[in-house]
Amino acid sequence: MTSSSFDLVLLQETKLHNITPFKLASFLPASLANFVHLDAVGTSGGILTAWNNNLLRLKNSVIKDRSVSVQFECCSSNLTFWATNVYGPNAEIDRDSFFQEIIDLQPTISGPWIIAGDFNSVRSADDRNTGRVTVTETQRFNEWLHDLQVQELPLLDRNFTWSNMQSTPILTRIDRVFFNAEWNAALPNSRLHTLPRSTSDHFPLNVDASTQIPKSGLF
């Protein structure tokens, strides 16, 4: 499965700067020619949201330090929704500012909303095959979700989404999708599953939100 199968793609850790349409065409299909990008810092980070303009219309966008939020209208159904694409910090000391960034975004949001991407954090010991977590990490993450009043879209086919690719691997669940009450009301049958992994150390995720929203992938 490749990005050519999708009409909305959310990429994290692009490690790219100043993306042009020509550059975008070198790694995404021509149908995904419309995009919003947060540049990498040095060789770290970078967030890209790209979509098929024949199926989705851009209504609004907000770019922050660790997130790209885009409001779309579906051409076929006139359904309007927000998609926030995130790449969370690795360092625990930076997580509070990341969580606050999304909290501060909330007043801007109206209607269905998903928050998706690489959070670089876990919710419980079950999210690491080693079982090693800190109470601070898991508690702050879960408190933040409670404050946002969002639910997690369950991953149906896999316990972990990232591997360090070693012979005795460390496995974690750091790639996630969350949704608000309006999303659940509009798209109650949304499903999340993984796609085949190629060279990445992450398993790509696919959000199936029924025929109302074009195919969406997180890579």
TrEMBL record:
GO MF, one example: catalytic activity
Endonuclease/exonuclease/phosphatase domain ranges (all copies): 6-202
InterPro entries: Endo/exonu/phosph_ase_sf, Endo/exonuclease/phosphatase
Signal peptide bounds: none
Top-level taxonomic group: Eukaryota
Name of this protein: Endonuclease/exonuclease/phosphatase domain-containing protein
Species the sequence originates in: Brachypodium distachyon
Lineage, opening ranks: Eukaryota, Viridiplantae, Streptophyta, Embryophyta, Tracheophyta
